[in-house]
# Entry
Amino acid sequence: MSQHKPDRGAAGDAARKDDTKPSRPERVHRKLRIWILAARPKTLPAALSPVLVGTALAWADGLFSPAPAMAATVGALLLQILSNFANDYFDFAKGADTSERLGPTRALAAGLLSAKEIRVGTAVTAALAVLVGAYLALVGGWPILAIGVASLLAAVLYTGGPFPYGYHGLGDLFVFVFFGLAAVCGTYFVQASTISAPVFLASVPVGLLITAILVVNNLRDIETDARAGKRTLAVLIGPRYTRLQFIVLLALAYLSTPVLWLIYGHGPTVLLPFISLPLAIRRAASMYTSKGRELNPVLAATAQLSLQFSLLLSIGIIL
# Structure
């Protein structure tokens, strides 16, 4: 008589599945890595550039204040992350992010995060930015409140709202204004409670180089953006003039620094950013030799150039 033996196949399979199921710490770590990906860390150096220059100007004038400077740094990073989350959500919703995307992975388009998760992340980041902005507004008064509210709206309305300005050729202008002029001048103002022509001028090259980052991004995506109805400036003027725009932005950034020395009384050390000029020339050359996904390293290198330029300018101002 044969003896019945229990079937261990299903149990064995379940056990094997349990063995391979990631633990809670592993799941948390994976989710954290996804959120870091969604925050696009390679774009964050651009957010630090204006804070560096604004704080260096305050230091040079004997007006440096550590708490507002730190808050300005955190606020700038939060606004950049907020913009990235909002862009991830709205670009996907509007059909600009598809399987044909040439840029780095977008968390929502890749299915790594749900639309609800991105919305929650955007709301949380916005709330944190508001808290930091409230402190800065208490320190700097209504001018900082106005800049903060406008910057918050600009971060979301780049691709969101009834008239997403990034879809109508205005992205370059708004990035120059808010990530250059407003960010440098605002950082200085919360420490000095005033503003001056040299401070405004120092914000110009910072804004130009941050705008150059966007130009690389838009050149890379020019074909997919056009198909999705995203009328960036690059789509409107075409690849030839987009490359020329990039060169003009870099040239103006470097040409503006001698004015700080020759007209506004800063020492010749403000010419330190010219140390990075060979890198800028290489970036300009890459714009003509690269296309599509080949522009992703150029994009990252341009962000690094922006930070290097601002760091050198900051050192030159302090010296």
User: Anything to note?
Assistant: Confidence is low (pLDDT under 50) at residues 1-12, 14-18. Residues 42-318 form a domain with the Farnesyl Diphosphate Synthase fold (CATH 1.10.600). The chain has twelve helices and no strands. The longest helix spans residues 233-262.
